[in-house]
Amino acid sequence: MIQRALGTVAVVVTVAAIGTFAFGPGIVEDRINRVAPHAPYEPSAAIRAKHAALVVADLHADTLLWARDPLARAGRGHVDLPRLGEGNVALQVFSVVTQVPAGLNYEANSGDSDRVALLAILQRWPVASWNDLFERARVQAERLHDAERRAPDMLRVIESAEDLRRTLAERSAGSRIVGGLLATEGSHALRGNVENVKALTDAGFRMMGLHHFFDNELGGSLHGVGKGGLTDHGRAVVREMLDQGVIIDVAHSSPAVVDEVLAMTRAPLVVSHTGVKGNCDTPRNLEDAQMRRIADGGGLIGIGYWEGAVCDTSPAGVVAAIRYAVDLVGANHVALGSDYDGATHVRFDTSELAVLTGAMIEAGFSDEEIRKVMGGNAVEFFLARLPQSS
Fold first, then answer.
1. CA atoms 266, 330, 380, 257: torsion sign
2. What is the largest CA-CA distance in the chain?
């Protein structure tokens, strides 16, 4: 009887484990990457035509973190290749997340917890990635490269300006191919080693964030405990990124870090996913004056779609944040930075982006402003800043 009972327990434990690994990641994502229920958006034929004529680009999505095939349309989350096609997205920046603290507080977090470790185990990533943040970045990058290998007519990984020009030319000729550019959400994957900057560029990364939700070896996060400036190691990493031609993303970096990076380089910076404090006064957003300095240096500011960035997440609210940013820094320096699939609750997914074009028209944006913000600025920025050839 005891042996039979133990056998029953073993079966129950096994079934529970299988269920956890099979359904756990989906349950987690379904709770945190939400699209608010809404009636179908029905842009007019004129708005659909105007949107279809645009080159649309988005500076930030965390899709590669999740246990979904990016080539297949999913019933959860915000981004996949079919939905990018429906939204007429030509260029999507895919950022990799390697460590997330338990709190995810905008005010202050320590780096003592690591929710991505559990997700890596649940999603059956290679064992090496369970405790190694560089390996986590490599695993997520490989997911994008694998998708390109399986469907080269749907996706091209963008590593050079030549790749981007070719993608745009094919789209102009009728292709629906989407360009995917790899970025890091913070530089935790460097593991404190400056040489790993080149290792990440060799893996295809072309844009790197310095921070995420907590202070790291490079210096202070906007949401960290100390919120200080760059460390000596941080300055060495920034210099190496500049030497390697990496585009530096200061989303989530402390104001002190942003000032120091601006002082170190004339290379334009990116704030890939953000709002502007004058429009939405939350701890998530940098001050207006700092945004102006970033723009004055030729930088690019990606406006997000979630509450912490724009306060009002309706299409009209997002467009109001874009209008404020354009009035603040000029139409040449504002882009889309959705933070899709980044533990965000939004009102529309990437398949529904025509609703933004319609809201911009209703808000009185000019055709040129719409062209620039919806993707023109981002494309011009990357054509100028990416290596010219692979």
1. positive
2. 79
Q: Which two tokens stand for residue 378?
A: 């981002």
Looking up tokens 């986590």 gives 136
Q: Are 105 and 29 in contact (CB under 8 A)?
A: no
Q: What is the pLDDT of residues 135-169, one digit of tens each?
A: 999 999 999 999 999 999 999 999 999 999 999 99
Chain Cα centroid distance, residue 228: 24
Question: Buried (b) or exposed (e) across 113-142, using 16+ Cβ within 10 A?
Answer: ebbbbebbebbebeeebeebbbbbbbbbbe
Backbone region of residue 356 per phi and psi (left: phi > 0; alpha: psi in -120 to 50; beta: other values): alpha
CA neighbor of 328 nearest in space, from 385, 285, 367, 389: 285
Burial of 108 per CB tally in 10 Å (0-12, 13-18, 19+): middle
Which backbone phi and psi does 389 adopt, to 5 degrees? Answer: -140, 160
For the beta carbon of residue 195, count every other beta carbon within 10 angstroms: 9
- Bridge partners of residue 178, in order along the sequence: 155
pTM: 0.93
Helix axes of 315-329 and 288-296: crossing angle, nearest 10 degrees: 60
**Per-residue model confidence as pLDDT tens digits over 331-381:** 999 999 999 999 999 999 999 999 999 999 999 999 999 999 999 999 999
Of 321, 311, 305, the C-alpha closest to 353 is 305
Burial of residue 32, with CB atoms counted within 10 A of its CB: 0-12 exposed, 13-18 middle, 19 or more buried:
middle
Alpha carbon distance 187, 192 (integer Å): 9
Rounded Cα–Cα distance for residues 142 and 233 (Å): 28
Distance CA 285, CA 200 (A): 28
Give per-residue burial for 364-374: e unless 16+ CB within 10 Å, then b. ebeeebbbbbb
Classify residue 72 by burial, with Cβ atoms within 10 Å: 0-12, 13-18, 19+: exposed
